[in-house]
Amino acid sequence: MKLVSFNIQYGFGADGRYDLPRIGPAIADADIICLQEVERNWSRTGYDDQPALISAMLPHHHWVYGPAFDMDASIVTAQGVTNRRRQFGTMILSRLPIRWSRLWPLPKRRMLDPLNTQNAALEAMVVAPSGPLRILSLHLAHVGVAERLEQINFLLSHHARATAEGGPWSGTDDEPARNWTEGEAEPPNPARAIWMGDFNCEPHSAEYRRLTGETPYHPGARYADGFTDAVAAAGQTPGSLHTHVKVIAGETRLRQLDHCFVTPDLAPAVRRVSADTDCPASDHFPLTVEIDL
């Protein structure tokens, strides 16, 4: 299967031009797609409903959208209120049915300078041929290391409780007339997971080491709650890919800020990881992971 993670920068390319359809070719042939910086009803993007427009590009994919923050953008006239929300968040599209999903608002610190925004992780459970697994499309804080570490710890704590917590509902339906279950079996909340997105950190950073369970003072030692970098699982060198471009003081800087992390049991299934540095649709490049699921 092919998985793609892409921070689309709400449709603005590295050339500064808004052109949402440019993301289509980068994601069209993927089986599971994790997008970040997807928005609705912003003046800068012509008040487009981007989740609707993106889903129309992939009519054979299931999809969910999770706004990290949600602001009033209603239109008030003498006739009444036209309710409208200005939203910014993450999205998951999948050829496999999305059995359930939920949104995790991530810990946030109030900042004086520069701008800081609410971030979130969108979680979706799909049943692959090899069994159920959880997919996270996430976007970590873009400014502070300490804030990103708080967000990672928050997500790892929820991940550790997945199987004990169960899915959206569990137990015996004691009100069958209310049809809480709609005749379906209890949905799983599996330990197997894939996290993809814009982590705003580079390989071997403090955040990266926390995700992989590495200890900074004992090379090679890893905690059991760590994830595996898909790049390393594929036998490639972490840091050898570039997923973000930025010009600083006239110098073009290429970095890998976008990653895919898998639970260790999935590491042997990873075949290849690549970044499409020719894609002009964003200041990030789409990250593609080929994995046997």
| Biggest β-sheet: strands ordered side by side in the sheet | 3-6-2-1-16-15
Taking all Cα atoms into account, the compactness measure Rg is: 19 Å
Please report the first level of CATH classification, the CATH class: Alpha Beta
- Reported by name, the CATH topology is Deoxyribonuclease I, Chain A
Give the % helix.
10-25%
Shape: globular
Averaged pLDDT: 93
Largest sheet: 6 strands, mixed
Kindly, what is the distance between the CA atoms of the first and last residues, rounded to a whole number of angstroms? 6 Å
Number of helices: 6
Strand content: 25-35%
Low-confidence stretches: none
Give the CATH architecture.
4-Layer Sandwich
Structural class determined from secondary elements: alpha+beta
- This entry's quaternary arrangement is single chain
Q: Mind telling me the CATH superfamily name?
A: Endonuclease/exonuclease/phosphatase
Number of structurally distinct domains = 1
SS elements, strand count:
16
Strand/helix succession? EHEHEEEEEEEHHEHEHEEEEE
